[in-house]
Design brief:
heterodimer, A: 240 residues, alpha/beta, Rossmann fold, 6 helices, globular, B: 792 residues, alpha+beta, 6-stranded mixed barrel
């Protein structure tokens, strides 16, 4: 019944490396990563800090460029696109959720969602998106007036309101306590199941890998383990 | 409204303190641009229409006497459109209740059927009719100064006779927009006026039946700028009539003053906006650079969401545009109000028919465009950083601050003596170089403005001091109708209250060298002269050489002459025969265009015999002239006009004190706006940037004032450094502008006293403290417990 069983690959990385130049030395962050994300899949990438998770996510989301290798989104090669084309690509296909929410402090919850919907081609109504994350009654509050969990919900609403095909989550629970974090995870699982949105989440928290259809383990820029969850755990079953 | 514009609006409101102070700077820049340019256009338009309607002359020819019948016999001169003869003489005026010497210029009115050159505008009453020998039309400012109205009586002493006349009306004329007594520097309607009388009365009074002593003429448009080209060929034809001088319009005093004023307006209309908007660009740049840094993650998120670089940069540039738009619009309003006020000031200064302050839509558009471009430049430079920020980098925490040792730390003995707080302040300054440069630049501009005002004060005081305490020591100059012998001097010396009387021989004439020609006056001095001395700009007395001319350097340069050159001098009085004379030396002259020569040499040039043209009087020390002295002076039959040096000095001082007070206050106000704008911006930025540091210090037990003093230290260092630069900048700015406003008649020395420098620096420190109070207020209100929790 898992959504990904029915679908072909949406995103494919082949031999992707990323090196940063720090002063005089080149520091490799990713080394020859191969992976593919299927349409409708919920994938969790786990790794300790410094393993290259965020860089991998940024490359998947067209926010950063690979130093080597190819990134394909369906039949389009992201690695060959101009900056302008990448911007266009992000606008139409990708949703992001960040560890620290990254809301604009001077905009209300609704307006923060509008920041995304104003750009998108077929957006959800911002109110509807906020209702989906359970914030129907907090729409006119500023980020400063919301709890961390609520702020992250606004960020989720902002991400899904664009109706992206691929939702990328960078440590979505990293700044939250366990209960609040689980509520956010429930939302992500729900979005994946109900809307069919492909979701890739990175985390250092290994228990979260049990929620995905599949999980990868990243260490020092290399994928060291890739496995399917034969029995996906429900959010209620995990704890940290 | 798009959601990003809503973000913009809220953030603008959040930063309103800083915004108001930056907008104030922009407002001043635009207001200066609009008001000065508008005043220029208003004044120019009014002058041009006045000149056109009044048919302003292109040249004036003064002669001893020319029969009018001969004028018609002059051959047709190509390029000359019209010439009209008139009678023009100085006269003294007697008014009931006025004991001081009052004089003026009497002009004959042309016959009414003639389209007059330099036509008058009758402001009240009417012109005396032809043949009317009992009426006079009085200059409007003179009538107003003395409360004279149509029907009142006044007495003119013309050609040695008293004429009691009825005031038929008042008038103004385009050739006397700025009316000065000969040798004067400022209009003095209390003491000097214009009097128009009928041709018949003028002929009778000055014994000029059928003759004139002045021609006014107009040339065809292509010669309007250089009437000399067509007038010079007339000289030989006119010399039999005792040609005294030919004055092209550009040398006519009233026109020259108006022209100088217009030039100054243009200069300030350029300089002031450049200074203000330059500071605004710096400050906005700093503010935007900081804002972009602070909103790194928001920029990253926007880019991650798919906003294009251009959209993000445009969003930040709009901050500048709002400042530019609001500042520009307010600046236009303030500028228009200033222009209206300036029109009133000019109406008191220049006699014009109707100087109206118009609204110039194109100027408003220009003001807005200049303001928008400047602020877009400032914010664009700051927002550029947003462009460079790759989305992935923007989302990553900003790289940790790498603090290097600052230069001062290498000077160990000095560094060790500084307290930790001073060390911290200096390190912070060196770290944020752009901000330091911008703060320093703003302070330098502010101090430069204060220095500008102080230099103007010091320099003008120096000028007045030199002119009236060192050069012109006489209290009165009695200008004689004809040359007289030494007995006039002896007679004057015996007048009540007179301590000293000296003869002066001053001969107007034409100086020629190659084809350059200039109307000048030679002043004969001996070593015995105490009341008039040749003084250079350092205040040193220069003895006139035994032979040859002692000439102002600017005049020599203008005529391309050097010491040793020989020139031809044709005196306009006495025997008018050309004489060769050499330039003995040149000197730096501050005021006037007097050329000095030894009196013996001058007398010799004139054909021998002791001659006096002016008697100079000094009163008993410490006394003011009494009514008796005035009566006695006016009783001297040989005197044509009385120059009152003390009056000139008083006039100059009152006029200057008033004008300088406004000017100084304005510039100090400008400097205050700049200081506030700069200090508040950098202070608020520092608070925003170092919330955590401030919170930590508070947690450690620092009080809000102790924390504030850290920021104050930085502001003081910056503003003191800026003040030093400002001293130099202001001095050079003042020097350049004084050179620019220096005319042939007045060259202002650039002086800045030590106490003025101290005052400028003290004001910089004071303004820094006051502006810091606003920053301090924000520190006092800061929720530092909350700030401790901020992630970095």
């Amino acid at each position: 019944m898992a959504a990904h069983d029915r679908a072909g690959p949406m995103l494919a990385l082949a031999g992707v490396s990323r090196t940063y130049r720090m002063g005089e030395v080149d520091v490799p962050v990713l080394r020859g990563v191969d992976l593919s994300v299927a349409r409708g899949e919920l994938m969790v990438i786990v790794g300790p800090s410094g393993s290259g998770k965020s860089t991998l996510l940024n490359i998947m989301g067209a926010m950063d460029r690979a130093s080597e290798g190819r990134v394909m989104f369906r039949d389009r090669e992201l690695t060959a696109m101009s900056d302008r084309a990448l911007t266009w690509f992000r606008r139409n296909h990708i949703g992001f959720i960040f560890q620290f929410y990254n809301l604009v402090p001077t905009l209300t919850a609704r307006e923060n969602v509008q920041v995304a919907t104003e750009l998108a081609q077929k957006p959800l109504d911002p109110d509807e998106a906020l209702a989906m994350v359970g914030l129907a009654d907090r729409m006119d509050h500023f980020p400063g007036q919301l709890s961390g969990g609520e702020q992250q919900r606004v960020a989720v609403a902002r991400a899904i309101a664009k109706q992206p095909e691929l939702l990328l989550c960078d440590e979505p629970t990293g700044a939250l306590d366990a209960e609040t974090g689980k509520a956010i995870l429930r939302l992500l699982v729900d979005i994946n199941a109900r809307l069919g949105t492909t979701v890739v989440a990175i985390t250092h928290n290994a228990v979260i890998e049990r929620l995905g259809h599949r999980y990868l383990r990243l260490s020092s820029g290399c994928i060291v383990e890739s496995a399917e969850n034969e029995h996906r755990a429900a959010v209620e079953e995990i704890d940290w | 409204m798009s959601v990003l514009n809503r973000k913009l609006r809220r953030e603008l409101l959040q930063h309103r303190g800083v915004l108001v102070s930056i907008i104030a700077i922009v407002v001043l820049g635009v207001a200066c641009l609009v008001s000065m340019t508008s005043s220029y256009l208003n004044l120019l338009a009014e002058r041009d229409s006045y000149y056109r309607d009044g048919r302003m002359a292109h040249f004036w020819v003064d002669m001893v006497r020319m029969p009018d019948a001969d004028l018609d016999r002059l051959p047709e001169m190509p390029g000359i459109e019209a010439i009209q003869p008139r009678i023009s003489y100085p006269a003294t005026v007697e008014l009931a209740d006025v004991i001081e010497p009052v004089s003026g210029q009497v002009l004959s009115l042309p016959p009414p059927e003639q389209v007059a050159i330099n036509d008058i505008v009758v402001r009240s009453g009417q012109r005396p009719l032809p043949g009317d020998r009992d009426s006079v039309l009085v200059g409007e400012s003179f009538a107003e100064a003395h409360g004279l109205a149509v029907g009142d009586q006044l007495t003119l002493e013309m050609g040695g006779n008293h004429h009691e006349l009825r005031i038929a009306g008042t008038a103004i004329s385009c050739e006397f927009v700025y009316l000065m007594a000969p040798g004067g520097l400022l209009p003095d309607p209390q003491r000097y006026g214009l009097f128009y009388i009928s041709r018949e009365l003028a002929e009778d009074a000055f014994d000029m039946q059928g003759a004139s002593n002045q021609l006014v003429g107009r040339v065809s448009p292509r010669y309007a700028e250089h009437p000399d080209v067509v007038v010079d060929p007339m000289r030989p034809l006119l010399s039999p009539y005792g040609l005294l001088s030919v004055t092209p319009r550009r040398h006519q005093p009233s026109h020259r003053f108006l022209e100088d004023e217009l030039d100054q307006l243009v200069a300030f209309a350029f300089l002031a906006p450049v200074l203000f908007l330059g500071v605004a660009v710096l400050v906005i740049n700093v503010m935007m650079t900081r804002m972009v840094q602070q909103q790194r993650s928001i920029i990253g998120t926007l880019k991650a969401l798919g906003y294009r670089d251009g959209q993000v940069v445009w969003h930040y540039v709009k901050f500048g545009l709002v400042i530019g738009g609001v500042g520009g619009a307010l600046g236009i309003v303030v500028g228009q109000l200033l222009a209206d006020w300036l029109a009133v000031v000019y109406t008191a200064y220049f006699e014009l028919p109707q100087l109206v302050s118009r609204f110039h839509p194109s100027l408003a558009v220009a003001g807005l465009l200049v303001s928008l471009s400047a602020t877009a430049l400032g914010s664009g430079r700051g927002a550029r950083a947003a462009l460079k920020l790759a989305p992935a980098d923007a989302l990553r925490a900003s790289p940790p601050l790498i603090v290097h040792r600052v230069l001062l730390e290498r000077i160990g003995w000095l560094w060790r003596r500084l307290s930790v707080n001073w060390q911290n302040a200096l390190r912070n300054l060196m770290r944020a170089r752009l901000r330091a440069v911008s703060g320093c630049g703003a302070a330098a501009t502010g101090v430069a403005m204060i220095v500008l005002a102080l230099v103007y004060n010091d320099s003008l005081n120096e000028l007045v001091e030199l002119q009236y305490e060192r050069i012109l020591l006489a209290d009165f100059d009695l200008m004689l109708r004809d040359f007289a012998g030494p007995e006039v001097v002896h007679a004057a010396a015996k007048l009540p209250g007179v301590a000293r009387a000296e003869p002066l021989l001053s001969i107007p004439g034409t100086l020629e060298a190659d084809h350059r020609r200039r109307e000048v006056a030679l002043t004969g001095l001996t070593g015995d002269n105490r009341l008039t001395q040749a003084i250079d700009r350092d205040g040193r007395r220069i003895e006139p050489p035994k032979r040859g001319l002692l000439m102002p350097r600017w005049l020599a340069e203008q005529m391309d002459l050097r010491p040793g050159d020989t020139v031809t001098f044709t005196p306009a009085r006495g025997e008018r025969r050309p004489r060769q004379v050499t330039i003995a030396r040149t000197f730096e002259s501050l005021m006037g265009e007097a050329i000095y020569i030894h009196r013996g040499h001058l007398e010799q040039l004139l054909g021998g015999g002791e001659a006096v043209s002016t008697v100079q009087l000094a009163l008993d020390r410490g006394t003011t002239p009494s009514e008796v002295t005035y009566r006695a002076l006016r009783g001297l039959p040989e005197v044509e006009m009385i120059g009152d040096t003390q009056r000139q000095k008083e006039l100059l001082e009152t006029h200057m004190v008033g004008a300088m007070r406004i000017f100084t206050l304005m510039l100090i106000g400008f400097a205050t706006v700049i200081f506030f704008g700069s200090i508040m911006t950098s202070g608020y930025i520092a608070i925003g940037e170092r919330q955590r540091e401030i919170a930590t210090l508070r947690a450690l037990g620092y009080g809000p004032w102790a924390v504030g003093s850290l920021l104050l230290r930085e502001a003081l260092v910056l503003n003191l450094a800026g003040a030093v630069i400002g001293l130099v900048l202001g001095y050079h700015l003042a020097d350049a502008s004084l050179q620019a406003v220096s005319t042939e008649l007045v060259r202002v020395p650039t002086v800045l006293h030590g106490r003025s420098m101290l005052l400028a620096v003290a004001m910089a420190v004071l303004l820094t403290f006051i502006a810091h109070l606003l920053v301090q207020r924000r520190i006092n209100r800061m929720d530092w417990l909350e700030a401790l929790k901020i992630k970095e």
